[in-house]
Structures are given as C-alpha cells and as structure tokens.
Design brief:
With 79 residues, the chain is mostly helical. It has three helices and no strands. The protein has one domain.
Length: 79
C-alpha cells in the first residue's frame, strides 16, 4: 500500500507507523536504517492533514506543527 493510500486506514497512517516499528526491530533499533519508512509516515501524515484539516487527529501522526517542522527538515536534508 502506498503511503498516501494509508490515509484511509483505520487509524489513518497506522500501516506506516507499523512499518517503522518493524524496520527498527529488524535493524537493531538503528534509526538511520529506517529513514525511508519514517519519511513515508510523514508523507502519509501530510496527506492526512491536507485532506482532513489541521484539527483532525490520528494516533499515528505527530501534531501538524511538529509535522511541518519535520517535513521542512527532510526537504532541507534532501537538497
């Protein structure tokens, strides 16, 4: 399932959060090896807030202001 499709999951983006946990477990909790799945969660959460507004909430996503900061950091790292 693509990250944006996971917006419709119950709870929203939960499959992406589970993917992070699985990745961390499989890689000895080395976060550096899980950056792709972490980014996919953030992208799903960004889509969730775009679709439902910043007042929406899901246990799988950070609050909108923190998500904006994380997405900005990821975009700057990608430059």
């Amino acid at each position: 399932m693509a990250p944006k499709d996971d917006v419709e999951a119950k709870p929203a983006c939960h499959p992406r959060a589970c993917a992070i946990q699985n990745c961390l477990t499989s890689n000895g909790y080395n976060e550096a090896k899980c950056q792709t799945v972490i980014k996919q969660l953030y992208e799903c959460c960004e889509s969730f807030y775009e679709r439902y507004g910043e007042q929406a909430s899901t246990v799988s996503c950070p609050k909108p202001n923190l998500l904006k900061l994380k997405m900005k950091q990821l975009r700057e790292e990608g430059k």
